[in-house]
C-alpha cells in the first residue's frame, strides 16, 4: 500500500488560480495528481488565455483529442481566432473518409484509436497545426495525433498542454504552464520525478 500522505491533494496554481488536485495511485507505488478541467469554466478560460499568448505566430489550426481537452481547445480557438478540430476516439457512423492512428493513453492504459473525420481533413490539410491536450504524460497521444495529422498533410509545428507530467526531457518542447511530478513509493523511499 502506498504512503497515505501521497494521496492527499496536491496544490497547483495555474494562470493565477489555485486548485487542489486529487492524487491517485495508477500502478503499485506510482502516484499522479489528476488535473481535470471538465466543468471548470473559470480555469479553462484562464489557462486558454495564457496558452494563446505562447502560440507560435505561424499557427493556423488547433487540434485536440477528445474529451478532457475539448473545453481548453475551444476556449483557445475563441481567444485566438484559429479554427479547431477534434480527433475522436471512436469512428462515428456519420464520418466519411476518416483516417486514424492508434495510441495508448496513461489514463486508460489501453490502446485507443484517434480518428479524424474526412470533413476535417480539409480544415487541417496544408496548414500549420498545434496539438492541444490537457496534460502530457507519456507523449503517446501527441504521437498518435501527429501520425493522423501527417496523413492529412498537416504540419504539426507545436504541442500545447496545460501541464506536462514527470521528468521527460522531451517536455521542454511542449508549450505548457507547468509540470506535475510523479511520485514513486518504494516503501520507505519516496521518489519524486
Quick summary:
This protein is of the alpha/beta class. It has four helices and 14 strands.
Describe the structure.
The protein has one domain (37-180): 3-Layer(aba) Sandwich (Rossmann fold), CATH 3.40.50. It contains four helices and 14 strands. It has helices at 41-53, 70-80, 118-124, 140-151; strands at 10-14, 17-21, 23-27, 30-33, 61-65, 84-87, 99-104, 111-116, 128-136, 155-165, 174-175, 179-180, 182-186, 189-192. α1 (41-53) crosses α2 (70-80). The longest helix has 13 residues, at 41-53. The radius of gyration is 17 Å and the shape is globular. The chain starts with 9 loop residues before the first strand and ends with a strand.
What order do the helices and strands come in, and which of them pair?
Elements: E1 10-14, E2 17-21, E3 23-27, E4 30-33, H1 41-53, E5 61-65, H2 70-80, E6 84-87, E7 99-104, E8 111-116, H3 118-124, E9 128-136, H4 140-151, E10 155-165, E11 174-175, E12 179-180, E13 182-186, E14 189-192
Parallel strand pairs: 5-6, 5-9, 9-10, 10-11, 10-12
Antiparallel strand pairs: 1-2, 3-4, 4-13, 7-8, 13-14
Helix pairs in contact: 1-2
The CATH architecture: 3-Layer(aba) Sandwich
Number of domains: 1
C-alpha termini separation: 19 Å
Q: Write down the overall mean pLDDT.
A: 90
Number of strands: 14
Which percent bin holds the helix content?
10-25%
- DSSP helical segment count: 4
Radius of gyration: 17 Å
- What's the overall geometry? globular
Low-confidence segments, ≥5 residues, pLDDT <50? none
Portion of residues in beta strands equals: 35-45%
Amino acid at each position: 500500500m502506498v504512503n497515505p500522505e501521497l494521496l492527499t491533494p496536491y496544490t497547483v496554481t495555474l494562470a493565477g488560480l489555485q486548485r487542489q488536485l486529487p492524487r491517485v495511485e495508477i500502478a503499485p507505488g506510482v502516484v499522479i495528481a489528476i488535473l481535470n478541467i471538465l466543468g471548470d469554466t473559470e480555469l479553462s478560460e484562464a489557462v486558454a488565455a495564457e496558452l494563446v499568448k505562447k502560440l507560435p505566430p505561424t499557427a493556423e489550426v488547433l487540434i485536440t483529442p477528445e474529451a478532457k481537452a475539448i473545453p481548453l481547445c475551444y476556449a483557445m480557438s475563441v481567444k485566438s481566432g484559429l479554427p479547431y478540430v477534434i480527433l475522436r476516439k471512436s469512428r462515428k457512423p456519420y464520418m466519411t473518409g476518416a483516417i486514424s492512428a492508434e495510441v495508448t493513453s496513461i489514463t486508460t492504459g489501453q490502446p485507443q484509436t484517434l480518428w479524424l473525420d474526412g470533413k476535417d481533413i480539409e480544415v487541417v490539410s496544408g496548414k500549420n497545426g498545434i496539438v492541444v491536450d490537457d496534460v502530457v504524460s507519456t507523449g503517446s497521444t501527441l504521437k498518435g495525433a501527429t501520425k493522423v495529422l501527417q496523413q492529412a498533410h498537416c504540419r504539426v509545428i507545436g504541442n500545447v498542454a496545460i501541464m506536462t507530467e514527470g521528468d521527460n526531457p522531451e517536455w521542454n518542447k511542449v508549450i505548457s504552464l507547468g509540470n506535475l511530478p510523479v511520485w514513486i513509493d518504494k516503501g520507505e523511499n519516496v521518489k519524486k520525478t
